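User: Predict the complex.
Assistant: Input components as received:
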Amino acid sequence: MTPSPRELEGVASLQAVRQRSEALVAPLSAEDCGAQSMPDASPAKWHLAHTSWFFETFVLARWAPPFKPFLPFDAAYRDLFNSYYNAVGEQFPRAQRGLLTRPSLAEVMAYRAHVTAATTELLARHPDDAALRALVTLGLHHEQQHQELLLTDIKHLLSCHPQRPAYAAGCAPASPVGASAQALRWQAVEGGVVSIGHGGEGFAFDNEGPRHRVFLAPYALANRPVNNGEYRAFIEAGGYDEPAWWLSEGWDWRCRNALSQPLYWQRQASSATSSPTSAWAEFTLAGLRPLDALQPVVHLSYFEADAYARWAGARLPTEAEWEHAALAAGEACTGHFADAGVLHPQCPGSFDDSQRYGSVWEWTSSSYAAYPGYRPAAGAVGEYNGKFMVNQYVLRGGSCATPAGHLRASYRNFFAATARWQFSGLRLAMDD
Amino acid sequence: MTPSPRELEGVASLQAVRQRSEALVAPLSAEDCGAQSMPDASPAKWHLAHTSWFFETFVLARWAPPFKPFLPFDAAYRDLFNSYYNAVGEQFPRAQRGLLTRPSLAEVMAYRAHVTAATTELLARHPDDAALRALVTLGLHHEQQHQELLLTDIKHLLSCHPQRPAYAAGCAPASPVGASAQALRWQAVEGGVVSIGHGGEGFAFDNEGPRHRVFLAPYALANRPVNNGEYRAFIEAGGYDEPAWWLSEGWDWRCRNALSQPLYWQRQASSATSSPTSAWAEFTLAGLRPLDALQPVVHLSYFEADAYARWAGARLPTEAEWEHAALAAGEACTGHFADAGVLHPQCPGSFDDSQRYGSVWEWTSSSYAAYPGYRPAAGAVGEYNGKFMVNQYVLRGGSCATPAGHLRASYRNFFAATARWQFSGLRLAMDD
Amino acid sequence: MTPSPRELEGVASLQAVRQRSEALVAPLSAEDCGAQSMPDASPAKWHLAHTSWFFETFVLARWAPPFKPFLPFDAAYRDLFNSYYNAVGEQFPRAQRGLLTRPSLAEVMAYRAHVTAATTELLARHPDDAALRALVTLGLHHEQQHQELLLTDIKHLLSCHPQRPAYAAGCAPASPVGASAQALRWQAVEGGVVSIGHGGEGFAFDNEGPRHRVFLAPYALANRPVNNGEYRAFIEAGGYDEPAWWLSEGWDWRCRNALSQPLYWQRQASSATSSPTSAWAEFTLAGLRPLDALQPVVHLSYFEADAYARWAGARLPTEAEWEHAALAAGEACTGHFADAGVLHPQCPGSFDDSQRYGSVWEWTSSSYAAYPGYRPAAGAVGEYNGKFMVNQYVLRGGSCATPAGHLRASYRNFFAATARWQFSGLRLAMDD
Amino acid sequence: MTPSPRELEGVASLQAVRQRSEALVAPLSAEDCGAQSMPDASPAKWHLAHTSWFFETFVLARWAPPFKPFLPFDAAYRDLFNSYYNAVGEQFPRAQRGLLTRPSLAEVMAYRAHVTAATTELLARHPDDAALRALVTLGLHHEQQHQELLLTDIKHLLSCHPQRPAYAAGCAPASPVGASAQALRWQAVEGGVVSIGHGGEGFAFDNEGPRHRVFLAPYALANRPVNNGEYRAFIEAGGYDEPAWWLSEGWDWRCRNALSQPLYWQRQASSATSSPTSAWAEFTLAGLRPLDALQPVVHLSYFEADAYARWAGARLPTEAEWEHAALAAGEACTGHFADAGVLHPQCPGSFDDSQRYGSVWEWTSSSYAAYPGYRPAAGAVGEYNGKFMVNQYVLRGGSCATPAGHLRASYRNFFAATARWQFSGLRLAMDD
């Protein structure tokens, strides 16, 4: 069981999070773990190595350089597994990570064991070093982020195979027989000057703060995300062929790539006599399945989410609207997260009704930007978040691939408007 | 003399604005007017035709279809000079506008005369039709936007010629002998819940409203834009070689394009014995000139403006901060605009000290987005602004190429973060 | 009347060829002459200037540097109008020639007059200088090549305009009413050791020699080029959809560009009740016209010509086969050339039956390569031909856009296998 | 020991060739075998599978469809491992072969065992079926071609790793201490009408025939390939910076890719005090090594080979010149082939003096084209060679990575003019 947020520090958390990463590749071969299906995705092996590099670079190298067990495991890893920290040094080109057949998966596992053991020993040696504990905690949250990426990247890789192999049988169950769609209802939220952003105790990434005031006009949010049946209606109404619903750049992107459906949907050939539902199939981490109308639509770009909302006479919420509504609702940060072992969004009620946390990341209309007063951390770790604050849009709420305990109401995920391989869906909003 | 904002309606304004467009191409040959130097820029001839198409499509075709003088001037122009209005019909591919050698410049001028005359007659015939007057006013502001684009696009075209020809001799004077740099001072602004956006009387584009409340923390703005001397110091300090100052996407862009200076700067070959200032030259609409340290730096991308601000220990303002400060200062919307005939930013004092309006557009850190409650206009005109609200950044304040009377405190200009061919500079901000 | 090959030297030829270039742009505006529709094509103005640059650089600059009338007309032209002679200096980037709005067409015409006058004077002053006369003759043949390119480049430019404007009305007449297709007959040619290549008197480009022996197996050539009706049958038989007919690289190219017909063919919308012939239209220098089944098919790539030949159970000839057959036939080098004022290939009999010379360039299966013993000329002029001898295929026979008197049996034209904007067709060959 | 050409049929050859492929991957992990470093290269696993697919598709499926052991091993392999045979069916996209993590290497090995066993049984059952034996022989030669590609593709993959790992230690020995360069001598060859092409007994690919007559002028060939010391002199003389030596397309390619040395050469950082030789290192299948001046230069593109020859005052031979000289010399087809276990070209004398066969493939100036009378085989196997006969250049003689027994004097290898990852070098020629 993955620890809850406040526990994500200390040796027990370290062991649990590190083991969880390793458990994720258990269904995969070394070959699966080495391949890279597109520049945005990384091989699973690279995720396993990079998350170790993070501890080695930002924890072990800083606290224990002269001590023998903390010597670099392999000097070459410094560049090979550096993602984007210019202050640390060079980086092996991102788009070529699939070419790193050396070190092998077994060697990376040995690297992991070394880093976990050394970090464990370091924590034992400096039990009262708050800065050390803070960086270890950051490393654990960092590793949890890569756990989700590992799943989305493997999903993309498997989707490129004409046989659409499954990552794990049974991890994407259909809605129960007889289940019916939950009605869409609007939940009004009063506006005014409200506070958002991480304010207080517990871990948060630097981009979640400072806590600050914003002014919100009254608005309403839907009680649940948009589902496949609703999105299919958009497609059948010609939504992908009508530029009026699309942002101009989104329309160009859709035309250039000849898109007419979400990333992992595909029309079934023999649909003549079938029901409308069975005309579509969806690739999941359990392989190809009939589209389930009740489950949240997922793997949408910002452009598609925005176009759907416009067609539906609504809009996307801002991230402040999303966060304030979540805080106002006062719900615990629980829901359908990855520890359930179900790696596909489920219909409302399977885990909770509102699906506010977990299930699907929800696109907001907010461009990813610094909060007022934001300052990146000093040193190389300061490159973690701040330098990406341009041309990306914020997603909120976590997904079925997010580790339990990783999320908060103030959590800000962000991707380019064209990104579709994350577990990204949407919840409608409107002015009130 | 170009009319002031509140006068931009009626026949006199129509005549003045239309004539101003035609005056802009007086220094150019038909060949100059036909060429297109990059997909983002349009030929001058196309600007002249498209601004006429706008009146023909949104005014003449709507009010007077059965009346003979208002028949389409040429049915082919409907697609040829449609910029991006999908609801009107097809569009000739943007990147190929330079291939439209037909109609000739002379034919486009005849088209202009026809449209101006017919619109004049229509206004005379329906003196009390508010909707007509509103669309004519929109057409005039639209044409003013293209007047600025015509200048920036011609500047880019001429810059591609190895001889760096001038658009107009003398339109970019150097700072007076003996002038010295104005000291940079910070002007504190109190925050709180403030209102921004166009609220009331007079014309504004739909994207400037609705007027709405935002919460601002206290902040300070510089008293003037950054100048060439300051920006040169950034270059000489290695600013283009240090990733720490740059957004990640900006750094990649800078590396991919091997950039090391603003768009129109070039190092002078024989700089060994020269003063540092004379080591650089700048291409202007008056041709190549020695870099003038006192004048505002111009033709920066968002990425460069942001990197400079970070290096300077400051940041870009948000558009709400910019607008509120402008309103708080209570200055009239006057300054160095294009009607002065000086088509290059001048040192402070030449027109005014603060250079708040005119001179250079100032990048803000705000992604271009809909204001709360924003609704695009119904019909094809609704495509004017709303569909571009993604992956662009807002610039404020107008430039030396903006027609006088075109600007307002609430005016929102917007370009992609890589755009450099506009008269774009920056003013520093910081938390207070 | 354009002079015949053996006359292409001396002052009279100079005047005639220079005037012919200028006559070609008479139907065009300065705007037409300035535009560039693709990197492979050049603006008409550029052709006019470059052919003058050739005389200035290789004749005037060499014979008369100290003499005042021969000073550079404009020092900037040295790079602006250099096509590809690295030994002369830099070259303005080929793909941006459409941006050279300066010098104007009028200035280029003045440049032409200057160069023509100075060369005339030089010839008068050195009547017995064989090297001078040889270079002037080379310059005249060079200019004739550009006369053909000027027409093909203008045709491409006009084809990009949705209204498909004509270069000259009436220059592409239809076949006479009642004309019928000439039967395809095979003309056997005995092989053996034969000689090809320019051997003797009169001008030839360096790539046409040395004359040398080759061994040919017996073969047969068709009596005329493939016509539109035959090529349409290939299309209707699914020729563009069957990879078996295509070279692998050609098939990839066809798929990548979604090609299904020759460059300037277009299906007519309202073809339901029409005859098959009228289902297609073809863009010509006289504008869009119904496809004429009897006229030679033109504007084919090598890949299309080769695929057609394979489908027809035949093959393309080698250039040696083509040349030897032409010499064996003993026909005069006459036919449908550009001086006729008919700028589109005509049905056999309009000019001659065999259409061996003129009408359409005929793709051969020969890669453009040096003949045994080939040596480029010394100096910059040596860059004329030799450095292009890779990845291009030879075409033979001239076209309706080739100046009369320009061609010889040994003449080698060459283009990349994807090039379609030349007047390129094919004649079938087979083993005998 | 690999069988000689005439033995390459029957069960013993089948076993030997199939085992040789499997031995080639012995030094590699499953991860190494799955990666693809560029679209032109394939993963080692793909080579192992595709060569089995070839037997399954063209032998097993044709001779024994109803017989149980010959059922498709896996129906999905039909498309997955089809390289380019359109007549067989679809092909998995070439550039994505590195994404095929399924089937695993172990499964591919099982596929190989199945195919080898079934083919063995088929041969036993039909001992007198000449067509069967011919296709098995074709399959074996096909597999040998892929053995060489497997080595060149793995070399390219390993070269992308910053640590430059070796495929096999010791497989690229340096020249013996005290060895000196063999003097370059010219061997004159009389011309006339000669016959080339495969004429008679034994296996040959279809593209090697028919045997036919060509006319050759007298010429001379160098006694050995160009070596590293000679090529280094070309570099040091500025050969990569002087366009006069280069074909125009080659010069553009060199500039666009900023090339200044052969593919696997790299300048050594600390060369200040070193000897000129040690200023360069070369990546080999044994890892990075100091450049050995006496060994043949290898991994050149056609453009580089051609530029070197021009600089050296010589030229590349035609393929007819190469083949005729080889036949005239009357040497046995022996030399430095891959069975020696030395996977890098050695200095003359290590295997033989002339290095006519083996060592390095030698670029010829001949574009890859059909011989007179060439007809591809009927059916899908006809796609083997013919459809690639455009925009490629012929190489002759085999290399140190070619299986012994695979080559003949008439053997035609072919690659694009930019290809550098094969073991490609050159031998100079000149007119006599």
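The interface with chain C takes residues 84, 86-87, 193, 212-215, 217, 243-244, 246-251, 302-303, 306, 315, 365-367, 369-370, 372-373, 387-391, 417, 431 of chain D (CB under 8 Å).
Let me know if you want any component modeled separately.
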